[in-house]
Amino acid sequence: MTGTVLVTGATGTLGREVVRLLVARGVAVRGLSRRARAAGDGVEWVVGDLVGGAGIAAAVAGVETVLDCATTQGRKDVAGVGRLVAQARRAGVRHLVYVSIVGIDRVPLGYYRAKLDCERVVRESGLGWTVLRATQFHDLLFKAFDLSARLPVFPVVSGAGVQPVDVREVAERLVELVGREPAGFAPEVGGPRVRSYRELAEAYLRAAGRRRPVLPLRVPGAVGRALRAGGLTTPERAVGRGTFEEALARRFG
Known about the structure:
Elements: E1 5-8, H1 13-24, E2 29-33, E3 43-47, H2 56-60, E4 65-68, H3 76-91, E5 95-101, H4 110-123, E6 128-134, H5 138-148, E7 154-157, E8 161-162, H6 167-177, E9 184-185, E10 195-196, H7 197-208, E11 214-217, H8 221-228, H9 244-252
Parallel strand pairs: 1-2, 1-4, 2-3, 4-5, 5-6, 6-9, 7-11
Antiparallel strand pairs: 8-10
Helix pairs in contact: 1-6, 3-4, 7-9
């Protein structure tokens, strides 16, 4: 039987989908938010801040499983995960599920190093833990392409392979972990196939009805080499079904 599940980052891109699926399955859901929200739709909302630590002890009280979907997109994540782990341990949480990113051990970006440190905190927490790594969400590419489309030329990362995945499918995998035994590193989740960054950018421009000259950019150094070597992809785990074109159709109608 599944007890109460706390979802951090419950109002974010992934967290919203996770909450929706848990509620649909009849799971008791507690959502963590930095702002007060009225209870409703089967969710108990609690106010808390992982970075500052306020409200975390109350958020984890009586919780069996924590799904950590929160991120600050930077080094503050490490302190936040540390505070969450400390309070979860005191509260007797049975299972901590942490969402991470495919390739963070291969592509030496600052944010990815922070994610690796977060994984280490989870592994060394003394809690039962599972880490699920996923490739980039369609929504992340949309944000990047929306910014690029404002420029007179459309920059694309030359030679980089990307394997975008539907956030709803990652949410499904996370929800499947609730009620199961901690698994350590779960099988990664990748989109249906590896695509070039340029191919996806051109698909975006067509769907958006925009014309921009495409400017290839070769990323230098170790980061560039890792990207060109497919560091952000997991072709052997191409388990996603939703394509980038389907996501574009929903976005632009």
